[in-house]
Fold:
Amino acid sequence: MDVLNKLMAIDPNYIIMGFIVIFFSLEQILKAPFDFKNRISHLFQNVLFQIILVLLNVFFVTFQVYSIEWLNSNNIGLLYMLELPIWAKLVISLMFYDITAYWIHRATHVIPLLWRFHRVHHSDTSMDSSTVFRFHPLELILVFGVGNIITAALFGTDVFSMALYYFILYLFFFFEHANLNYPRGLNSTLGLVFVMPDHHRVHHQQDQYYTDSNYADIFILWDRLFGSYKMMPVEKMKYGLVEFDSAHRQSFLYLIKSPFLSIKRTSKNKSETQTRL
Ligand SMILES: [Zn+2]
Ligand SMILES: [Zn+2]
Structure:
């Protein structure tokens, strides 16, 4: 626990900066599976999203922490009714945060108003580690951030487990989005329980049949359990959304205002090349 306490004491923004430096550098040095161009300008556009998020979070994180601490001080939520060792509570708390995020993520694909914000993340036609930053800040704060408060209200999870959840979440996010070749065999081993890059690559397909799948962030178990698990061969992958497939629509300014624009969803129907693995 001591190591964990020390880790959680580090400013999360420094941890995220560390992750992007490591993953983005590896993408430039190693042989990548997808040969994308203009990596620096792509990085720049995506980093702008993170800057806005960090600024807005100055206010929101205080609200989030205050809300969860208030819930905890009143012993609200399932975990307050159970006698469990600390480590078990921690692992279960991570699973609670992750399963809530799974259902919220699934809702963002189904509810048109939420999709307007969430499609910003899916718009990236040349996905790499910086795509981790490409979320509309209002989605992260008002949808997923409030989701964590709901998790604490229902299950009694605390701020410490949320901090640990975010650390693991961002590690998985960079791992899943990075344009890197990973060892073969991940999908059939760790991938039975955890989300692997190939799972999340399927989620970023232009074909809506695949976009609407593999919603989990950390535990792929949720997709396997709730019938949203899909796989396809890496060679057939094409990232992004058809309606955002132009240089103008890949810019930060266009994307930040895009939830307030009427953009028709254009997608092919169920893919001919579908394969369930
Ligand atoms: Zn999604
Ligand atoms: Zn993603």
